[in-house]
Amino acid sequence: MKLEEYTSFDEKGKFFKNGEIKINHNIETIFEKIKKFQELGSTWIYRGSGESKYKMYNSAQRLYINQELHKQVPEDRISEHYKKFITGLINNCKKWNNGVVVKLIKNSGINENNSIALLSYMQHYGVPTPFLDFTYNPYVALFFAIDNINYYPSDNEIDNYFSLYFTYTDATAFHIWKGIFDDKIKSESITYETIDKNDMSILIPDKEFYKIMNSVNIINQEGLFFYNNHPWYPIERTYSEYIEWVRKETGEEKFNKLKILDTFSGCFNIHKSLIPAIKEKLKELGITKDYIYPNMSKFNKEVKYYAIINSLT
Prior knowledge:
three-stranded antiparallel β-sheet; about 325 residues; about 15% strand; alpha/beta; about 45% helix; single chain; globular
């Protein structure tokens, strides 16, 4: 079963601010817009996508949908089945290699049954999770969007674009999500059932469990996660339905006074023909593959090599 995609920018515009906007010339326009966001402060976060048509599914959803695992149960039991699927991933992580991941977590002073810590570790190493990566660094997001893209022009317009997403973490809804686990993020047991009670949440990397990765990638990528518990709704749709519920509960007048975003994020759709020029600009800013994925196998050689050079000169 294939994942749903956007067929047009008009369709995409219903879920993203500026989702129908296209940038197809002058890369300086992109970098000027990014600079304006940075001047507004660190409350803006970003995500890059190599295809504008892609909806924001997390990796657990992609596996669950593509493998058609939902067909194992009646429709009214899919949500529970999906929850058990995620729980199974977490349990397998805990058992892997004689429990080495759990030992790492415990040695970091974190409760071994902290599912947020386990899912964070899994996310970092590519195991499917209900987390979606964002970053505080717009240039990192732009790099991820265009890394390994091969551009083949298409008659379907949306195929010719990639996207840079941006959203504001000080929005009311995001503030609520950020506070969900703050008090017990490290010391307490957090089951996945507890996490799943929240349709969405945002996990900011200012807590101890992020340090267990012991990886320089985390430092350079400046990441954080959004959580979405729905088996098949991309996060922009989960958010849209949440906002409609809040609007009905509070009433239109009160809703309009709240600091709530109508859409999950904003979006720039950028033509793929601009990728070579964008790569050169990112290289000038020091955002390269070596920066994003520091090759620690070079660490010994390069530190030793330049020490020798310095001593010789």
